[in-house]
Each structure stands twice: as structure tokens, then as C-alpha cells.
Design brief:
Blueprint lengths: L7 H24 L5 H18 L2 E7 L9 E5 L5 H9 L3 E5 L8 H7 L3 E3 L6 H14 L4 E3 L20 H5 L3 E10 L16 H9 L4 E7 L3 E2 L5 H16 L20
Parallel strand pairs: 1-7, 2-5, 2-6, 3-4, 3-5
Antiparallel strand pairs: 6-7, 6-8
Helix pairs in contact: 1-2, 1-4, 2-3
Amino acid sequence: MSNANTSRLTQVFRSFRLLLHIISGLAQSAVYPHLNQSAQWRMAQNWSAGLLKILCIRLRSSGSTPAAHMKRVMLAANHVSWLDVYSLNAVCPARFVAKSEIRGWPLLGWLSRNAGTLFIERTKRSDTARINEDIGTTLTLGDRVAIFPEGTTSDGTMLRHFHASLLQPAVTVAATLYPVAIRYLDTAGAISKSAAYANISMLESLQRILGQQWIEVELIFNHPIDSDGKNRRELARYAEHAIAATLSLPVPHKTPGKPFYLPGEQP
């Protein structure tokens, strides 16, 4: 059962607060590129946490996040909602790889550009080489990078196949990969369909979220995976299996005829 709907007055009040917060974010994003890394991370965390609070998204995080001083860190998460970015940023700020269409979104597109989002033209296969070079450079310079290997969102009740292409930079620069499981729950403790951003417009998604009393987002950071000695497909399978196990969802892909074990598991 979904959350009980909030009153129209409450939704209008939240919308007004959201608009003011976005305007504040636009002002902050003008100076964001000129700050040092620690200041950027702090700004991203605070603004993202503020956004979640306004939308009545209750954030819960578990597992070990990468230390602030740790270099060459990549996050790989399942993808349910546009809220995923801000939920992750509120806990572990990173530069995200996103579809190029987001650049054209009103307000949020501008925020994403100024925050250093790495945009990829999904319809152009040739763009993968360019974005992987950008990801590798970003990791080498000490920034974290977050990707959604499914390539699209689901409704939270399933896991899609993890594509390996954007994991190549982790292999190239010997990064540490953190699989992160994301789950949205309603007031009854069931999967929240209102949080999912699938087959609807951004405005429709926002209206659904604003109409809920509250939604809980849970981030579970799995054990990090050392990319040394692994290829990108192996990393994709490790992350896929770890997140599927954490969310108790079926694994969408398995190499036929070849058993697969997570690090530390016994054959």
C-alpha cells in the first residue's frame, strides 16, 4: 500500500520551499567549480540533504563508505529514481555519469552541469570511449565517480542487467569499486512506487513524491571490490550479484555454464 496522500496545501508549501532551495542551489553552483574538493563535497552533501528533507525523503545509510582521503573510488548503484543522485551525494559525494538529456532539464540541468556531472550521449556508441577517458581522468585526479550500470531506471522491484562498458576506467586506473544498493520504502515498509522514475515525466515524478507523507530511501554500501586483476565484465558481475543479494532480488545475468562467487564466498 502506498503512503497516504498529503493535503493540497502541504504540497503547495513543499513546492514553494523546493523552488527556493533550487534557486539557492543555482547561486551556490556558480561558485562550486572554484572551490577545493573538500568544500565541494561539503556543499554537495548539505544541499542534497536539504533537498531530501524538503521532499520528506528519510535517508538511512549502512555499510562502510570510502574514507575521505581514499583515491580512485568508483560507486556502482542500481537505479530507481532521479533521487538516487541526491541520496548518494548526501552520504558520499561524487561526480555522476548521466545521460546527456539531463542537461536540458529546467533548473536541475543547470545544477548538474555546474556540479561537474559527466554527460554521455547514449545513442552514440563512439561516445563511450570519450566518457571513459573523462572518468579515468576524474578518478586519477582524486574525485569519486558514480555510475548506474543498468543504464536506465526500474520500479525498484527488479534489477536490470549491469552493463560493463563504463567500468573500464576502474580497471584502467586500478580503482576500488563500491557496489551500493538503493531501496525506497513507503510508510507501510513496502517498495515505494512513488519514488520510481520510470515511464513518466519529471513533473509527474515530482508530483507523486510531493503527494506522499514521506518516503524512506535506504543506501547499503557493500564491501569494496579491488579491480586489480579483474576485467570490466567481472566487475559488473561482482557489483550485480552483491546488489541483488543485498536487495533480495533475482540476478538478471549469469554467464552460462560458469559458476560465479562473490569475493570471500566458498565454491
